[in-house]
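Data availability (excerpt). The following record was deposited with the supplementary files.
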Amino acid sequence: MRNQSSSSKNVIAALVAAAFGLTAGPALAQTTSHDSHTASTPASQRPASKKSVRQLTSQVKHEREQMQAANVKLNKATAQLRRTTHRMKESQAKELRVASAEHSVRKSERKTRSGVHPRSAHPASSHPPR
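Predicted structure:
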């Protein structure tokens, strides 16, 4: 694995700082020494320009804002789900109370109906009292 150059470390430090909403002050203040053969070195080893660091920082800030907005939407949806679930449970409890009350009414109606009709199973005795 290749060692990272100071400039790429600066870029990484700036990105990490931006991701956490911090200023990258000390990380960006460091500069790498310019060799006489800078033109012949690969782009990954060249010091990061201020412009590229600003662009990356801006991109990370934008992505962080998008994630925060998505997080706000998620929190709102979760709160709405809790409210809806609460209402649904209240409705179910109400339905259960109504069903229980209806059952009690039907049960008491059966009792009163059965008490009104004379029982034919035991007819009155035909023998006169003694």
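Summary of structural features: The longest helix spans residues 50-116.
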